[in-house]
Write a structure and sequence with these properties.
The protein has 222 residues and is an alpha+beta fold. The chain is 24% helix and 32% strand. The chain has two domains: 47 residues; 163 residues, Umud Fragment, subunit A. The strands form three sheets. Strands 1, 2, 5, 6, 11, 12, 13 and 14 form an eight-stranded antiparallel sheet that branches. Strands 9-8-7-10 form a four-stranded antiparallel sheet. Strand 13 and strand 14 form a beta hairpin.
Length: 222
Amino acid sequence: MSIDKVSKAKQQTTMEAQENVKSKSTFREYAEAIIMALVLALFIRTFIVQAFKIPSGSMIPTLQIGDHILVNKLAYGVRIPFLEDYAVDFAKPQRGDVVVFIFPEDRSKDFIKRVIGVAGDSVEVRGKKIYINGKQFEDSHAYFAGDDPQTAGLLSRDDYGPRTVPANHIFVMGDNRDRSYDSRFWGFVDLNDVRGKAFLIYWSWDGGDRWVRWERIGNLIH
């Protein structure tokens, strides 16, 4: 074999080796980027913000069926991953907060309701009116859609208590007071089961027709 042919063969081998190295380097960069993105997304979802979809009308008119919301998981503290407990407490839910929590009767489900009573409060409902510590509660978010066939006739809906909220618990109700399955029926929520505070509607579909509710997108949740 001539010297020129040997030289060309070496050059070709070198170029192929360089291309292989470059290809491996590019693949590694993409793989590292994807892994970092997944880790970051998991971190954000676990500690900072989580998305939820509203499946029922219990929070009408504040939240509609088909609203997609963001929940601030740092509003009350830092949770221990995979454990239903807080490592650090920043604050506690206050009356009026809209919170997402683990449903006490089925811990595989998450519920969203408004905080009505906090630890130590005496909560009473008389004729659909709420009384906190003996005084009528200014219930500006209350909405009454009429009887729900599933709950109509249950005395605990329109008349409840008085009962005192235990330590480390909250009493919650849906804004759609006639059609909400809440603390009036199944009791109090443990603060360790509160996932966070709802704060933003980032997307909204109009029921089965799938029309976008543009006017709701970006609305803060109060």
